[in-house]
Specification:
Layout lengths: L13 H12 L11 E6 L11 H14 L3 E6 L5 H4 L8 H17 L5 E6 L4 H12 L3 E5 L6 H5 L4 H12 L5 H9 L13 H12 L14 H20 L3 H4 L2 H14 L4 H12 L6 H9 L16 H7 L1 H8 L16 H6 L22 E6 L2 E8 L15 H11 L3 E6 L13 H16 L8 E3 L8 E6 L6 E6 L14 H9 L9 E5 L2 E6 L15
Parallel strand pairs: 1-2, 1-3, 3-4, 7-10
Antiparallel strand pairs: 5-6, 8-9, 9-10, 11-12
Helix pairs in contact: 2-10, 4-5, 5-9, 5-13, 7-8, 7-19, 9-12, 9-13, 9-16, 12-13, 12-14, 19-20
């Protein structure tokens, strides 16, 4: 019996007639017009390596859909690439473009009453946008993660894009020469795909599989690799089955699925951006789920079982080869709701039972994790009453203690105790003061390095380095290596206009300004016990020294 499709327009109606006229001119037959009509959502452009292979995927996916009995249509959306489209307007275009992609999809898929969609996900904002669109429209939706790029780091021990990004901040501070940065950036990226490492893109690809929105065993994956191409062909078959079976996005995106995804994010030390993206997915799917609270609730229960850069020493390729998301899900099975059903229509428990044992060197068992400290910690207090985030790398213990009235004070305490913590608050870099939303951390990484470097040469003995830093109001972490590492946190408060610093979009200028004497503006305090949040407080402004305006 033929499936009734929402794309079936009444024969003889005006909309049926004009659509038929349009489609006949494209060579579409009347028989093809009776098939499930599938959107191939191609969020790509020529601007970045992230998308460079997506156009080649489309014809293969179209053929797979046709062979499965569907009628494919490629549709295009906006395609932000963080390292490219953050150049204008201080990075303000990047995160809003996530929501623009959702609108782009709605206009075409809902406007044309298409029956389902396969989304080609790549750079950071595309996977969450695609899942948000699926949740909003509640049509059959299947995510294809289009893979991570080859890097010089993996192939011959050179640099990857994370190294280039980090050393750009060092160049602004005179720690890396422009010539070295030029050489580093020459061939750090050696093929199409998203940034290698546990950045936002790979994190959200894995989240898609953990939610059940991607096919099992397809994330993370090498761009243009055999697994990716197998996933493309399987997606073409799978989406047609989903339409016939009525398996829509909201049947997959359940509260239990969100909880499973948060469990995976904590276990892999995923990007802190996963918090806001999963919350957005939940909202679009009509779920009454507080994702921030879910992270808080699960933080102390979920050990960290992978340690991929920048959270630890391993490469994304090693996690991929060890079993990827499917291996992580198998290792986490006792902590998951295995009754959830994804795009395949099969319960997670069945899939986990069929999963080979993951490589224990890179995906640890629950009994022997890399650390039992949470990888993502939600903090609440007067600096960020609605919540803020600390990212804790897997390979560091982090004793955080003390409330310091200035960075200089913290340096003196560290010199005396030989260990401790630095807590700095940049009161002029929040989204209300400078609404660059997802990209203040471009400035912040360099800025905090400058602050720490300038405050006391003694800090060099702790080899303070940036592990992860994110926007505000968000608390983000900096760690050190060595026998007695120091730690530093930056809490970003949003109440003071950024114009006091001059040109807010000048990242290098901001870093140098901070390094040259504005550190008396940086203050704040946090007390963290065993990786869990107990308080987040701000020192009264009348307790601060006057700002040093000589640098201005």
């Amino acid at each position: 019996m033929r499936t009734t499709l929402r794309s079936d327009l009444p024969v003889g109606s005006s909309r049926w007639a004009v659509r038929r006229a349009q489609w006949r001119s494209l060579g579409i037959s009347d028989e093809e017009m009776t098939r499930p009509k599938i959107a191939i959502v191609n969020s790509s452009s020529d601007l970045a390596a992230c998308f460079a292979h997506l156009d080649d995927i489309v014809p293969v996916l179209k053929e797979a859909i046709r062979q499965a009995g569907g009628l494919p249509f490629e549709i295009r959306t906006a395609a932000p690439a963080d390292f490219i489209t953050s150049a204008g307007a201080g990075g303000r275009y990047v995160l809003p473009t996530r929501d623009l992609i959702v609108h782009d999809i709605e206009v075409v898929v809902e406007g044309a009453l298409l029956d389902g969609m396969v989304c080609l996900s790549s750079c950071d904002k595309t996977a969450p946008a695609h899942m948000m669109a699926g949740g909003r429209l509640d049509v059959p939706t299947l995510i294809v993660a289009c893979g991570y790029q080859r890097s010089a780091l993996h192939e011959d021990g050179g640099a990857d894009i994370e190294d280039v990004f980090l050393h750009a901040g060092h160049t602004a501070l005179g720690r890396t020469s422009a010539e070295d940065l030029l050489a580093m950036s020459e061939d750090a990226i050696r093929g199409p795909g998203v940034c290698a490492g546990m950045g936002t893109a790979n994190t959200m690809h894995m989240a898609a599989e953990a939610l059940g929105m991607a096919l099992p065993g397809t994330t993370p994956t090498r761009a243009d690799g055999a697994v990716m191409w197998d996933a493309v062909r399987a997606a073409g078959r799978g989406i047609v089955d989903m339409v016939h079976e009525g398996r829509t996005a909201r049947s997959v995106l359940t509260p239990a699925a969100i909880r499973n995804a948060v469990t995976v994010m904590l276990a892999i030390g995923g990007s802190i951006n996963s918090v806001k993206h999963l919350q957005a997915v939940a909202v679009e799917a009509g779920l009454d789920v507080d994702v921030w609270r879910t992270y808080e609730e699960l933080a102390d229960r979920v050990p960290v079982i992978t340690a991929v850069r920048p959270n630890g020493p391993h490469l994304i390729e090693q996690l991929d080869d060890a079993g990827g998301t499917r291996g992580v899900l198998a290792a986490l099975a006792p902590l998951l709701d295995v009754d959830t059903v994804g795009v395949t229509g099969r319960p997670l428990g069945e899939l986990v039972a069929e999963t080979p044992a993951p490589g224990a060197e890179f995906i640890r068992p629950l009994s022997d994790p890399f650390t039992r400290r949470p990888s993502i910690v939600i903090l609440r207090g007067s600096l960020a009453a609605e919540g803020s985030i600390v990212k804790l790398p897997a390979d560091e213990e982090r004793p955080l203690d003390g409330l310091f009235h200035s960075l200089q004070h913290s340096a003196r305490v560290m010199k005396k105790q030989r260990s401790g913590s630095i807590v700095v608050t940049a009161s002029t870099a929040g989204p209300r003061a400078e609404p660059r939303v997802s990209y203040p951390y471009v400035a912040s990484k360099s800025a905090v390095v400058g602050l720490v470097r300038q405050a006391s040469l003694e800090l060099a003995r702790f080899n303070v380095r940036i592990n992860a830093l994110a926007p505000g109001p968000v608390v983000t972490s900096i760690g050190g290596t060595g026998p007695r590492p120091a730690a530093a946190l930056a809490a970003w408060e949003d109440s003071v206009p950024m114009r006091r610093w001059g040109r807010p979009d000048d990242v290098a200028g901001l870093a140098l300004l901070l390094a040259s004497g504005a550190s008396s503006w940086m203050t704040g305090g946090i007390h963290v016990v065993d990786g869990g949040a107990s308080a987040l407080t701000q020192i009264p402004s009348d307790a601060l020294p006057a700002p040093d305006t000589t640098a201005l």
